[in-house]
Amino acid sequence: MAKPLQAVLLLLAILMTIMPATALAVSSSNYYKEAGEVYDDWDICRTNCAGDDGFFQVSEAGFCPTILGESLGENADRAYQLGQQFALDYPDSGQRAEKIFIFARNKVRYTPDEDQFGYEEFAQNADELATSIDNEGIAYGDCEDYAILLAAMYKGAGFRSAIVLAPGHAATLVYLPEYDKANQILSIDGESNWIWLEATGGNNPLGWMPERYIGAELMAYEVADESITKMEPPDKSPTVITPSGGSSGIGISPFFGVFGMLLLLSMFRRRRR
After folding, report:
1. Taking a C-beta distance cutoff of 8 angstroms, is the pair 101, 172 a contact?
2. Per-residue pLDDT of the chain (273 residues; tens, 9 = 90+)
3. With contact defined as beta carbons under 8 Å apart, do 105 and 202 qualify?
4. Cα 226 to the center of its chain, rounded Å
5. Which of 10, 171, 207, 218 would bridge with 195, disulfide CB 3.0–4.6 Å?
């Protein structure tokens, strides 16, 4: 073998050894950076939950999980389709709700955003997680990612769903009248029969609400099956997002520190059975 070719092959071998696997990931043209934050092609900030462009639009008035509009209505794609398939496979609503929860709980591995994306916060939309599950058999995310995926899947399966914010945490609620296995029955604006979905733990059952959130001031937003409109591509250089996979473990996302005391708003209260 010619010496120049040997040198090239040796260099490639060394680079493959020292470079992280994500360096070979396909870059995305759907993200751009502005003022240190990452935005997608819906103009939603993926690295901040607050403000008009934040993925949850958190403000003093409340919040709106606008990122779900990327996966609902006219934008419905893989996550919604998964919910529809569960509706076909499980006509009984209680069994269907349990199967969807177990699917998300088992197919998403809790991973802090810092470990996966290198950002303190990076929200994924429901279809990104669902596509990872399709392609890899597993996805990685933290609490708001579980919540977003579950909310979209439950809508596709014909349920009413909501996102709930607790101190340092996000989860999903599903409206399940007559479901008798939950440790708490919750109310939104006086309407009961909502149950908590805590998919961040590998053994959690449907309807189990962690004790630390029982009695806490919470905020909830019922999800509408509505899409948001993609924006024209901005005149900015694309930002490469290269997820690195993840590690196991249960934790909470740091992004809720942004609004701290906003959770004193009594938009949502629990109701004991």
Report:
1. no
2. 555 545 444 443 443 333 333 332 333 458 999 999 999 999 999 999 999 999 999 998 899 999 999 999 999 999 999 999 999 999 999 999 999 999 999 999 999 999 999 999 999 999 999 999 999 999 999 999 999 999 999 999 999 999 999 988 999 999 999 899 999 999 999 999 999 999 999 899 999 999 999 988 899 999 999 999 987 766 777 777 778 765 444 344 444 444 443 443 334 333 333
3. yes
4. 17
5. 207
| Nearest C-alpha neighbor of 153 from the set 135, 187, 129 | 129
Dmax (CA) of the chain: 78
The sign of the CA dihedral 175, 85, 94, 158 is: positive
CA dihedral 143, 144, 145, 151 (to 10 degrees): 110
Q: Is the dihedral of CA 169, 175, 181, 185 positive or negative?
A: positive
Q: What is the dihedral of CA 109, 153, 91, 202, to 10 degrees?
A: 20
Instruction: Please tell me the distance from the alpha carbon of residue 56 to that of residue 170, in angstroms, as a whole number.
Output: 11
pTM value surpassing 0.85: no
Alpha helix stretches (DSSP H) within 23-77: none
List Cβ neighbours of 165 (8 Å cut-off, separation of 6 or more). 56, 58, 63, 218, 219, 220, 256, 263
Task: Tell me which DSSP letter residue 230 carries.
Answer: P
What's the burial of 226, exposed, middle or buried (CB within 10 Å: 0-12/13-18/19+)? exposed
